[in-house]
Amino acid sequence: MLNGKKFKNNKFIYFICYALLAIIIVFTVNEYFNGLKYEHIKYSDFVNYINQNKISQVKIGKDKLFITLKSKQNEEEKILYTEKLNDPDLIQKLDDANIKFDGSSQENAVMKNIFTGWILPVIILMFFAKVILGALGKRMGSGVMSFGRNTAKIYAENETGVNFEDVAGQEEAKESLVEIVDFLHNSQKYASIGARLPKGALLVGPPGTGKTLLAKAVAGEAKVPFFSISGSAFVEMFVGMGAARVRDLFQQAQEKAPCIVFIDEIDAIGKSRGGNVSGNDEREQTLNQLLAEMDGFDSSKGVVILAATNRPEVLDKALLRPGRFDRRVVVDRPDLKGREDILKVHIKGVKVSKDVDLNAIAKSTPGAVGADLANIINEAALKAVKNNRYEVTQDDLQNAVELIIAGKEKKDRILSPEEKRQVAFHEVGHALVATLLKHTDPVHKITIVPRTMGSLGYTMQLPIEEKYLITREEMIDQICVMLAGRAAEEVRFSSISTGAANDIERATETARSMVTVYGMTERFDMMALESMQDKYLDGRPVRNCSAETASIIDEETLNIIKQCHNKSRELLKNNIKLLEKISEELIEKETLMGDEFMGIIRMYRGKGK
Ligand code: ADP
Ligand code: MG
Ligand code: ZN
C-alpha cells in the first residue's frame, strides 16, 4: 500500500491542531484552578504583614515567596504569594519577626504539575478528541473531518504485483490493453512526437471475469502506481463530497503520473442523467466532476483512466464520448481453452496428484467465470486438507465443481446440452451462409459462450475494408445471413426457438429500409417513403405516404424477407453435412476463430463431398 505524501501532511496538521486545542484548554483550566488556590499580593503588603506580625510561615522559592498567614483556618484558604525581590534583608527581617522560613516545595510542586497538570491532561484530551471526532466522522458519512480528502476510500498501490500472465483466457482484452501499457511505459516518447495519449478505457463484462484483475495487470505491466476507487463509494455521501473526492483523486493521480486510475463499478455514478427530475443530485454532481476532470487533465503526462462495469447499457452517453471512455474492452466469459488456462494459473501454487485433468474440469464448467474457477481450485484444496491429504485429486476438483456450479446454475444462465446444441447450429447457420454467399464479410469469430448482453451466442463478421456504399446485392445477402440462424434450426431440428428474435428485428429493419429509403424495389422505384429529417431529435424515420401505400410497403418488405429466408434454408439444406461438422466442432470448443472455421470448410471441400 502506498499513501500519498498529502495524506501524511494532513495527519500532521491534524495532530498539531488537536495538540494546540488541548493545550489551550489545559491552560485555561490550570489558570482557573490556580486562581482558586493562590492569591497574589504586593511585596509592600508582604512587608506590612511582617511588620503587623500576621505571618506564621514563609516558603522561599526561586522567584516567588509563598506566605502562610497566622489567621489561616483551614487548607481551603488561598495561599498568598508575591514576587521575590532582590531584598538582601529579607532573611533578617523574617528572623527578627520570628517567622519560620524554609525553601519552597511549592516550586517543586509546580514542576510536578508540569506532568500532572500539563502533559497528562493534554495527552488525555487529545486522545478523547480523536476518539470523539473519529466516531463523529464515521457516523456522518466518513470523512467529515477530512474535508474532501480521501483517507479511506482511495486505494493506492505503488506496485500491483499483477501482470498479464496472471490473467488467463482474456487474450483479446489483453491485446487491446497492450497499447495502453506501452503508452504508460513510454509516455515521454509519445509526448515528444506529439501523439495524443488515450485517456480512458472501459472494461465491460459480467462479474468475476477479471476486470479488476486486468486493470491491475495493466498497472503491473507498465510498472506504474495504481489508484482505485469504487463507484458505489460515492453514492452515500453528502452533496458535494463525491465531486470533491473525484477532484482529489485526479489531483493525486497527476502528482504520481504516469499512473492508472481505476474506477470500479462506474455505473453507480455513471448512470445516464436526466429522465427523472428528482434524480440523485449528488450522483449527477459527481458525474459532472468526473467528466470535467477527464476533459481537463493533460493526458501527455500519462494518466490513464480505466473503468469497469457489468452494465454498460445504463451508462451516460457523455462518458462514452471521444476523449473519455472511448475505448471499450470486452471482458467476457472464458471459453473452454480460456477456462483451462485460468485453472492452470490458479493451480500453480497447489500440490496436485498425477490424475488431475484440468481439461476435463474446464469441460464440465461451461459458463463459469474466472472467479468461479479460482474458487473451485480453492474449494478442492480445502477439501484435500480436510481429508488429511497432501495433494489435490481429480475427485476433489470434481466435487468442488458441483459445489460451486450447482449453486450458480440457478442464478446464471448456463445452457443445458440440448440448448447448447441448438445455439451452436443457429450460430453456424449464420456463419456458413455468410461464407457461402458472395457479397458478405468474412467470419471473424463464432461463439456459443453466453454473452453479457443477453444473447446466447454470436457470430461476428468483420469487413475487410470500410465501406461507404452498400449495394442491393450486399443488402440482400446481409438479410440472408441474419435469417440463417433460424434457417439452420429448421433444417436440423424439428422445432424452432425464440433465439432468433433479434435477427428477425434487424432483418426486418434492413428489408424495410430497402423499400422505403433506398429505392431498391421495382414497385416503388425511386420514391422516398420515409425520411430521416428529425435524426437529431430521436432518430426515428418519419413516414410520408398514405395508409394504402404503407400496407404495400409491408407487403414488399415481407417479400424480401421470404425470399431471403428461402435462400438461406436452401443453402443450408444443400450443405447440411458441413453444417453438422462445424456445429460439432463448435460444441466441443465453444469458440471458433475465423481461420479455424475456414480450415474446417477447406478440409471438408478438399476431401470432396
Ligand atoms: P471482476 O472485477 O470482473 O468482477 P475480478 O477481477 O475481481 O473480477 O476477479 C476476481 C478473482 O477471480 C480474481 O482475483 C482472480 O483470482 C479470479 N479471476 C477472474 N478472472 C480471471 C482470469 N481471467 N484469470 C485468472 N484469474 C481470474
Ligand atoms: Mg471487480
Ligand atoms: Zn442469430
TrEMBL record:
<dbReference type="Pfam" id="PF01434">
    <property type="entry name" value="Peptidase_M41"/>
</dbReference>
<dbReference type="InterPro" id="IPR037219">
    <property type="entry name" value="Peptidase_M41-like"/>
</dbReference>
<dbReference type="InterPro" id="IPR003959">
    <property type="entry name" value="ATPase_AAA_core"/>
</dbReference>
<keyword id="KW-0479">Metal-binding</keyword>
<dbReference type="GO" id="GO:0005524">
    <property type="term" value="F:ATP binding"/>
</dbReference>
<dbReference type="Pfam" id="PF00004">
    <property type="entry name" value="AAA"/>
</dbReference>
<dbReference type="GO" id="GO:0005886">
    <property type="term" value="C:plasma membrane"/>
</dbReference>
<comment type="function">
    <text>Acts as a processive, ATP-dependent zinc metallopeptidase for both cytoplasmic and membrane proteins. Plays a role in the quality control of integral membrane proteins.</text>
</comment>
<comment type="subunit">
    <text>Homohexamer.</text>
</comment>
<keyword id="KW-0482">Metalloprotease</keyword>
<feature type="domain" description="AAA+ ATPase">
    <location>
        <begin position="197"/>
        <end position="335"/>
    </location>
</feature>
<feature type="binding site">
    <location>
        <position position="430"/>
    </location>
    <ligand>
        <name>Zn(2+)</name>
    </ligand>
</feature>
<dbReference type="InterPro" id="IPR005936">
    <property type="entry name" value="FtsH"/>
</dbReference>
<protein>
    <recommendedName>
        <fullName>ATP-dependent zinc metalloprotease FtsH</fullName>
        <ecNumber>3.4.24.-</ecNumber>
    </recommendedName>
</protein>
<keyword id="KW-0547">Nucleotide-binding</keyword>
<dbReference type="GO" id="GO:0008270">
    <property type="term" value="F:zinc ion binding"/>
</dbReference>
<dbReference type="GO" id="GO:0030163">
    <property type="term" value="P:protein catabolic process"/>
</dbReference>
<feature type="transmembrane region" description="Helical">
    <location>
        <begin position="115"/>
        <end position="136"/>
    </location>
</feature>
<dbReference type="Pfam" id="PF06480">
    <property type="entry name" value="FtsH_ext"/>
</dbReference>
<keyword id="KW-0645">Protease</keyword>
<keyword id="KW-0378">Hydrolase</keyword>
<dbReference type="InterPro" id="IPR041569">
    <property type="entry name" value="AAA_lid_3"/>
</dbReference>
<feature type="binding site">
    <location>
        <begin position="205"/>
        <end position="212"/>
    </location>
    <ligand>
        <name>ATP</name>
    </ligand>
</feature>
<dbReference type="GO" id="GO:0004222">
    <property type="term" value="F:metalloendopeptidase activity"/>
</dbReference>
<feature type="binding site">
    <location>
        <position position="503"/>
    </location>
    <ligand>
        <name>Zn(2+)</name>
    </ligand>
</feature>
<feature type="active site">
    <location>
        <position position="427"/>
    </location>
</feature>
<feature type="binding site">
    <location>
        <position position="426"/>
    </location>
    <ligand>
        <name>Zn(2+)</name>
    </ligand>
</feature>
<dbReference type="InterPro" id="IPR003593">
    <property type="entry name" value="AAA+_ATPase"/>
</dbReference>
<keyword id="KW-0067">ATP-binding</keyword>
<dbReference type="InterPro" id="IPR011546">
    <property type="entry name" value="Pept_M41_FtsH_extracell"/>
</dbReference>
<keyword id="KW-0812">Transmembrane</keyword>
<dbReference type="GO" id="GO:0004176">
    <property type="term" value="F:ATP-dependent peptidase activity"/>
</dbReference>
<keyword id="KW-0862">Zinc</keyword>
<dbReference type="InterPro" id="IPR027417">
    <property type="entry name" value="P-loop_NTPase"/>
</dbReference>
<dbReference type="GO" id="GO:0006508">
    <property type="term" value="P:proteolysis"/>
</dbReference>
<keyword id="KW-1003">Cell membrane</keyword>
<dbReference type="GO" id="GO:0016887">
    <property type="term" value="F:ATP hydrolysis activity"/>
</dbReference>
<comment type="similarity">
    <text>In the C-terminal section; belongs to the peptidase M41 family.</text>
</comment>
<comment type="similarity">
    <text>In the central section; belongs to the AAA ATPase family.</text>
</comment>
<dbReference type="InterPro" id="IPR003960">
    <property type="entry name" value="ATPase_AAA_CS"/>
</dbReference>
<dbReference type="Pfam" id="PF17862">
    <property type="entry name" value="AAA_lid_3"/>
</dbReference>
<feature type="transmembrane region" description="Helical">
    <location>
        <begin position="12"/>
        <end position="29"/>
    </location>
</feature>
